[in-house]
TrEMBL record:
Keyword Repeat in record: no
Record's catalysed reaction(s): uridine(44) in tRNA(Ser) + S-adenosyl-L-methionine = 2'-O-methyluridine(44) in tRNA(Ser) + S-adenosyl-L-homocysteine + H(+)
Encoding gene (name): TRMT44
Enzyme Commission designation: 2.1.1.211
GO molecular function: tRNA(Ser) (uridine(44)-2'-O-)-methyltransferase activity; zinc ion binding
Entry GO terms, CC: cytoplasm
Protein name: tRNA (uracil-O(2)-)-methyltransferase
Keywords assigned: Cytoplasm, Metal-binding, Methyltransferase, S-adenosyl-L-methionine, Transferase, tRNA processing, Zinc, Zinc-finger
PANTHER family tied to this protein: TRNA (URACIL-O(2)-)-METHYLTRANSFERASE-RELATED
InterPro entries named in the record: tRNA_uracil_MeTrfase (IPR011671), Znf_CCCH (IPR000571)
Keyword S-adenosyl-L-methionine tagged: yes
Described purpose of this protein according to its UniProt entry: Adenosyl-L-methionine (AdoMet)-dependent tRNA (uracil-O(2)-)-methyltransferase.
PROSITE patterns, per database record: ZF_C3H1 (PS50103)
Primary localization: cytoplasm
Length: 296
C-alpha cells in the first residue's frame, strides 16, 4: 500500500494475523504451510504476482515470498485499495467477534477471504474512512531508527555520570587496603564499595535520570558501556580492578603476539587521571595510556 512502485520480500516466521495469533482453519495442511498460503493470499489481495522461494539459511522456516509485479494497472489503484481495506477490516472484525463471542466463522480459502457475517456488522461510515485509516492504533517505525544504547549521548554527559558514580563507590566505605607491589614499594589502592543499581540511581539528580530513562537499559547500559571503569554483576556496580583480570588463554599467531606486546594504546587510563590512588597497574601492564605521550 506504500505506493504502486513498491515491491516486497517477506520471510514468514511466527504465526500472526492482523489482529493477533493466526487461527488454523485446515487440518489437512501443516501449520507452516497453511500460514505461508495465508501470507501469499495477502499478497494476492494486494494485487501482486506472488512468487515463492527457499533461502539457503540454517533454519527450518526458510521459505520466502516475493512481490515484484502488480496484477493491475496503476489507474486501478483506488479500486484495489478499497478491496484491501475491506479485506483488512473483515479479518480484524472476524478476530474480534470470534474472541468476544467464542463463535467461529467459515472463511473462504481463496484470495478474497471475505467473512460475510462480519462484513454485515461493519459500521456504515467504515468505508468513508478506509482511505485514510488502515488500521486503528497502527504505528509504523520511523524511517531513521533512533540509537538508544547510550552510545549517542554527549561525551561530557557520560564522563560526568561516570565520575559521579565512581566517586560514590569510592566514598561509600572507608578505604580498603590492598597490597600492590610496584618496584618493591607497598601501596594501598582503594577498590571502593559495591552498590546496587537502585542505590546508585538514588544518588543521581532527576535531570540525569530522566535523560537516562529515554535510553534502552538506562543507567545499567551506560555503566556497562564504560567497561574500563565499572563491572556490573547481578545488579550491583563495582569499580573494576584490572589486577584481577585474567589474561586471554587463546593462542595468538606470532604476528599478533608481537603487535600486542608493543601495546597500541589508543585511550587514556581513567584511573591514572581520576582515581585518588592512580592506576592499580604499572604503565607497562595497563592496556590504557598513562599520559598522552603513550597514546598511539
Amino acid at each position: 500500500r506504500s505506493s504502486y512502485s513498491c515491491c516486497y520480500f517477506v520471510l514468514p516466521c511466527c504465526f500472526f494475523d492482523f489482529h493477533g495469533k493466526y487461527s488454523r482453519r485446515q487440518s489437512k495442511k501443516t501449520q507452516y504451510r497453511e500460514y505461508l498460503d495465508f501470507v501469499a493470499q495477502v499478497g494476492f489481495v494486494c494485487g501482486f504476482h506472488v512468487e515463492e522461494d527457499c533461502l539457503r539459511i540454517p533454519s527450518t522456516k526458510r521459505v520466502c515470498l516475493i512481490g515484484k509485479n502488480r496484477t493491475y494497472p496503476s489507474t486501478e489503484c483506488a479500486l484495489i485499495d478499497k478491496q484491501i481495506t475491506q479485506y483488512i477490516n473483515n479479518r480484524q472484525t472476524c478476530a474480534v467477534v470470534t474472541c468476544d463471542r467464542r463463535v467461529g466463522f467459515n472463511h473462504k480459502d481463496h484470495s478474497d477471504g471475505i467473512c460475510k457475517e462480519a462484513d454485515s456488522e461493519l459500521p456504515e461510515n467504515e468505508t468513508d474512512t478506509a482511505g485514510t485509516i488502515w488500521m486503528p492504533g497502527f504505528q509504523p517505525r520511523e524511517k531513521v531508527e533512533q540509537i538508544r544504547n547510550c552510545a549517542s549521548l554527549p561525551r561530557d554527559f557520560v564522563d560526568d555520570v561516570v565520575l559521579n558514580v565512581a566517586n560514590l563507590l569510592l566514598n561509600a566505605t572507608p578505604q580498603k587496603s590492598c597490597s600492590n607491589i610496584h618496584g618493591g614499594n607497598m601501596n594501598t589502592w582503594n577498590q571502593g564499595e559495591s552498590l546496587s543499581l537502585k542505590e546508585v540511581a538514588e544518588h543521581l539528580n532527576k535531570e540525569t535520570l530522566k535523560r537516562l530513562k529515554s535510553e534502552y537499559g538506562g543507567l545499567q547500559t551506560l555503566l556497562k558501556n564504560n567497561h574500563q571503569v565499572f563491572e556490573v554483576l547481578n545488579g550491583r556496580v563495582h569499580i573494576r580492578d584490572w589486577r584481577k583480570e585474567k589474561p586471554s588463554t587463546k593462542t595468538k599467531p606470532e604476528v599478533k603476539r608481537r603487535l600486542s606486546a608493543e601495546a597500541f594504546k589508543t585511550r587514556l587510563c581513567w584511573f591514572f587521571i581520576h582515581h585518588p590512588d592512580g592506576c592499580s597497574l604499572p604503565s607497562e601492564s595497563c592496556p590504557y595510556a598513562h599520559g598522552t605521550e603513550e597514546l598511539r
